[in-house]
Amino acid sequence: MGLDTEAITVDNDQRPGLPDRIGRLWEFATDLSWTWNGEARATFRSIDLPLWRRTRNNPVALLRGVSDERLQALAGNRAFLQRYDALCRTLDEAATSRSTWFADRHPEFADSPVAYFCAEFALHESIPIYSGGLGVLAGDHLKAASDLGIPLVGVGLMYAHGYFDQTLGPDGWQEDADDPLDPGLTPLERLRAADGVPWLTWIYGSGRRIYIGAWRVRVGRVSLYLLDTDLEENDPADRGLSHQLYAGGVDHRLRQEALLGVGGVRVLSALGIEPKAWHANEGHAAFMMVERVRNLIRDGLPFPDAVAQVRASTVFTTHTPVPAGHDVFSHEQMRDWTGEKFWEEIRQRDELLGLGLHPQDEGRDRFHMTAAAIRLARRVNGVSERHGHVSREIWRGLWDRRPAREVPIGHVTNGVHLETWMNEEIVGLLDACLPPDWRNRPHDEHDGAVWRGVRELPAEALWRVRHRLKLRLLDLMREEARRRWRAHWPEAEHLVGAGTLMSPQPLTIGFARRFAAYKRADLVFRDRDRLLALLSDPGRPVQLVFAGKAHPRDEEGKRVLQRVYEHTRDPGFEGRIAFIENYGLHTAHCLVEGVDLWLNLPRVPLEACGTSGMKAALNGVPQLATTDGWWEEGFEGDNGWSIPRAPDGSSEEEVDRHDHEHLFRLLEDEVVPLYYDRPGGGSVDDTPGGWLERTRRAIEVAASRFTAGRMVREYVRDYYVPALRGSTDGDDPPNGLW
């Protein structure tokens, strides 16, 4: 259906009582560009520092919670107004300037939207609609697109109950609870039709209409639209469709993905947005392509021509080689959901269902979302060089099993948003040793000469900053322990397991990510005595900090988490192992900034990329990891440590034994000795010169080669611009299309 887009209204609940002189604070708080603007963050901090910390750096909650008296005082405070006015000028210049990287290089496409669909986005902890790496990657993608001036719009789902709130029982078993968000404490803006109706369009499913509303999130120059079915107009069974991320069984997932893909296309149309290129970030969004094919067929285009037209303008990014990460639905489930009317409109049931046929399926009655996405996107990529190789091998069956090197699947190695993930104190150090314009120039690998200046970072200053960041992490752990002990924990052992006994002197190793069996968080515990000797060495002690959630239905992942947690309560380790509950973006920032070494132990080749190590490296934290994902490209010998691959043909047990042995050999013979090699005998004030060399190189390599700015520019060059041109010439489609 269509709407009068001129009449779309936005609920933007201005904070009552905000003085006119500083009235734009609400505008700044509801535009997430503040999350990577140091001056904006400093402005909000100066309003009420204790409240800023209690709200976990949430300016909307800050402005709602601060007293009217304080705001009136700030409206007459000369120093605050100078900072406020400078911020107004900076943000106005950014908003009105037409001189962006994209506009300068591709002016012909300056007004050609690119639609970016993803099931989750991680932008700020106040909007908990993410589960982990995929969402963080999507959030960083939007931020980099804003920086570069790309006319991109994001489409996702509004999970009113978030992902889930994690608590651990006395036995370490993960307990999952709803984590409902209060839109009034977020930058979310409800979109409404002219007459105030909260729905913009609808889809047909389970024999009835499902009305779809939308919320807008402003991310600098980019808008993200989040789809919502929790409306009074909907059947009770449909209102919960957008409640929670990755909840429910297969049928629920099918309905959510139809809402994202089919509903997302229709919401953009209702808003008057006409994308010229479309990007599906993972197979969850494949119905976006199916809906566009259906529309073209309904309008009279033959099936082959409809598919060719959709392929020409579509980009698809696959994120995992793990089979469980790819959704598959039966044809019966698809028919039950869509109903006969869907197929009657286009009379192309077999052809459309055939788009999802997996080449290795013995039957022909399953719809594989990733297979459909590959068939409907001319430009397909993995998320690291190695993952590109693995993806070509996995999917070459779609091209009649041609040699993997000839399969048209490329790669764009993920990157992280530097301005979001690099701590402000590290940024301050770089200001002293890099060219004055280093913050404003696009970071890419060709700026190697610029980034070599990192090698000149003064050792003493760098070591002091690294020490302060560790202290902040330990403060966070104690505050979280105090809060959880009061609300949830019946036993004192919880406090020990939360890290309250940890100190800033020992080498502190961090491991934080989704708890899945293949990520092997428990690999370090294969030999308890060897680990005990490593951690409790009186002259060179070591600490381990873990964080992360297991998927609510991943029983093996929960068992891995439980095994890790059991060791936090082992008195033999003297409180040197900690687990931080309910891992989120705020905790992630403190961890990647505050530990000394980042640990990543996926079983090769199952880690498609693994961006947490990039975030750590930006803050001077080297990584020790298996040679998988980005680390195969990123390890240069002096910016961290790499575990060599086990011999080909090794069993899973042999691989685990091999990787464990090499992990401990590196820790015992190289990592720990280097950290404690200090000229003054090892006091906290001594600077470990060799360690700081690795710290500097970690920053240099990550900042020059693994940022979201570099990543998004590669998408523009190799994927978006060709898709915007939309040519069908020279296509090399999978078999079975035409």
Key descriptive features of the protein:
disordered N terminus; six-stranded parallel β-sheet; globular; alpha/beta
Summarize the structure.
The protein is an alpha/beta fold and 738 residues long. The chain has 30 helices and 21 strands.
Polypeptide structure, described:
This protein has 738 residues and is of the alpha/beta class. Helix content is 42%, strand content 13%. The strands form four sheets. Strands 1, 2, 3, 6, 7, 8, 9, 10, 11, 14 and 15 form an eleven-stranded mixed beta sheet that branches. It has a six-stranded parallel beta sheet with strand order 18-17-16-19-20-21, with helices on both faces. Helix 10 (250-270) packs across helix 11 (287-298) and helix 21 packs antiparallel against helix 25. The chain starts with 8 loop residues before the first strand and ends in a 13-residue tail after the last helix.
Query: What is the beta-strand fraction?
Result: 5-15%
Oligomer: single chain
What average pLDDT do the residues reach?
91
Instruction: Specify the biggest β-sheet.
Output: 11 strands, mixed
SSE class = alpha/beta
- State the distance separating the first and last CA atoms: 32 Å
Helix content: 40-55%
Q: Give the count of helical stretches.
A: 30
What's the Cα radius of gyration? 26 Å
Could you name the ranges where pLDDT drops below 50 across 5 or more consecutive residues?
Answer: 1-7
Identify the overall geometry: globular
Number of strands: 21
